[in-house]
Amino acid sequence: MHDGASPTPALRIEAVSRRFGGLVAVDGVSLEMAPNQVLGLIGPNGSGKTTMINLISGALKPSGGTIRLYGADVTGAGATVIARLGVARTFQIVRMLPSLTVLENVAAGGVFGHRRFWGAELHARTYDVLRRVGLDRAADSPVEALTYIDQKRVELARALIADPKLLLLDEWLAGLNHTELTTGIALIEALRREGRTIVVVEHVMGAIRALCDRCVVMMGGSKIAEGTPSEVLAHPEVIRAYLGDAHA
Amino acid sequence: MLEVRDLSVSYGRHRAVESVSASVGANEIVVMLGANGAGKSTLLRAIGGLTPPHAGTVTMNGADITRRAAHEIVAAGIALIPEDRGIFADLTVHENLRLAAYLPRARAQEARNLDRVLALFPQLAERRRQTVRTMSGGERQMVAIGRALMSAPSILMLDEPSLGLSPLLCSELFRSLVQIRETGVGILLVEQNARQSLAIADRGYLLDNGRIVGADSAQALASDAKVQRAYLGGV
Predict the structure, then answer these.
(1) Domain parsing of chain A, residue ranges
(2) pTM for the structure as a whole
């Protein structure tokens, strides 16, 4: 559909919807991302952001609309197929394999991506990504013994080990203090410099401003605004429904 | 009212909380600031009877409640809202709220406390019959706070209540904590959102590597250069 001059979008979503019984969680949302972009997906709690991440990653199938990854129609494809195409995600509510160590939790992610790793290479890569998220010294700890924030670091390491082209981060920066936030933002910036395309769902507006090329604002399942961070954060409806007067 | 003296908690050989002394009175909001891993959640869990301390004492109105079981701590008037909120996702809002009023004291005031909770969070009244699993993060946090209040506590402890809330809901949450303080409840608040929590708090402590390294009025902490650098930076 695009002229030969512009590159194939990394992600192209057209009029996607998802219903849960009578509830329309996502209602006809369209968006497009060029490769190597960082897109912020923001909006009030319950506006459909996590459902969007679930639709893109194949955890949920859309009730309508189409999803294309690097030009290929993946509408309705399952999570394993999507992961093999180079998509990885983190979860807002951490999902650990509780009886395994940090190393084992992360290594498990290395065998499901678009590149698959085994043996010595898997081991080396696991240490690599653990070092990047600052967890190499905890490699042999049972994952259950980690704090919530460190479990979120495990989530990111597990996503990174698959060397994803498209990375979906669902509130990965939530709960970090100022210093940790600065480190976290620098890490996401470094991931983009490696050529990755990244979707961030966040409520931390400082991070949204620092990281995102563009933002899509959702409310009640629909897209209500789209643009650069400064454009959408100045949008009257976004201020009223999402930011509140204190941020106006 | 709540008094912690020289409290230490270890996980194996790792000392998570080291000789911490702190207090919370009626009608005050006390905030505990510190990096992730500083021992804030462990301190709340030790007070709440979920992780036994190995030294020190916890007293409530002068009575020693150190190492009591969690349900006895609740009976003593201390309610904890953990970081994962710990609500029953398969039950409705109303069922979650009613369950918390299981103590005789709380059962006797159930109707009044329910009115208070629904006045504080009117959205919960509209959604009384909704299963919590289908609710958003912000609504779940309201259920968690509402449920804690149904136990008729004198002290409310909250572990990172603003986690995952939109900026607007975050402001509403902090406003509701001020309203709860006005009813005479003392609040011990663990938060990464230092700016907004210091704005509503009366006093604060700084926790670093399990130790209290600072204690002052919220106003003094908010204007302290070291606190500003570590907790109130630009982002």
Answers:
(1) 1-86+165-248, 97-164
(2) 0.81
